[in-house]
Amino acid sequence: MSVREASPAVVTVSALDAGHLTLPERLFVTDADPEKRATVPSLSFLVQHLAPGRTRPTRLLFDLGVKRDIHGYTSSQQAHIAQRQPVIISPDCTESLLAGGTAVGPQDIDLVILSHVHWDHVGTPSDFSSATFIVGSGTLGLLKHGDGPLYPADLFNDDELPFDRTVELPLVSPFDVGSDRPKQTQPSNSALARIAPYLNPGTWAWKPLSTFPATLDLFGDGSILVVDSPGHLYGHVNLLCRIAESKYVYLGGDCCHDPRILEGDKGIALYEDGRGGLRSVHVDTQAAGATLDRIKGFVESYRGTIETEVIVAHDGVWRGLNRHKFWPGTL
Ligand SMILES: [Zn+2]
């Protein structure tokens, strides 16, 4: 009898519509049509993890998309959103969850991981009153204080996330401590106690995997890895989900806004920052480019063994081709 390795732990992943917004192509990709604007989704994902011996899965949402109520945004955010019209707010994440027609509603969500806290990803956290929020290091400081002239505090909501239900991931590197990026906020004991039944933050540590220098095994079984993916905004993280023995899904958030950049057909656009310099949609364009290179390298490194599907939050083409993978369907 041959000895066979145990099958890897897997999760199920379903896409959710969580609103749409409109992006001018010239701000996002090189060699753009200066007039072209595309209305694109801000995708959310339901990830379900069933631990051995349990009957109820732990349910996690990755990103919450656009707020249903525009008045939930600050006036500065609303001024920015005015440049992204049309914005479609229905169905939002919660409506899409309920429209799945199963018994799963917002009160059944245990965890929410935000790739980052831009307005089109934070959604309506108050809908998820049972959930604990997990965000990249520095995120709560960013919400409170902003960061520098391009990211002033009024572009964020300082009370966006409930402090007693929010856990910031550990610092990725000691280097982060000395830099001017937003400081880490230690999670409260109440937030840590909430996730103790199914997560063990005491064992969390950033470890390399293939081309990624820093991944964090969320459940300790390899089924969901949080991937440090710097460049777009402080605390930006991605999620690598194993959905089958030979299939990964890589949820890329805003690592890029247009999959043509990942495919190498386009580059990251640069435009005037209004201060005599150039900027991109990323806080650190070079770091964002390095993150994209690592993602491409990761996919290549497993080619032939494990297939990796990369999905970025604003990919309208993927949405159109994969309607059957939206909740209650699965990837
Ligand atoms: Zn963003």
TrEMBL record:
Assigned keywords, A-Z: Hydrolase, Metal-binding, Zinc
Leader sequence residues: none
Cofactors, names only: Zn(2+)
GO molecular function: hydrolase activity; metal ion binding
InterPro entries tied to this protein: MBL_superfamily_lactonases, RibonucZ/Hydroxyglut_hydro
Xref: Gene3D superfamilies: Ribonuclease Z/Hydroxyacylglutathione hydrolase-like
Protein family according to the UniProt entry: Belongs to the metallo-beta-lactamase superfamily.
PANTHER family: 102 KBASES UNSTABLE REGION: FROM 1 TO 119443, QUORUM-QUENCHING LACTONASE YTNP-RELATED-RELATED
Record's protein name: Metallo-beta-lactamase domain-containing protein
Organism name: Apiosordaria backusii
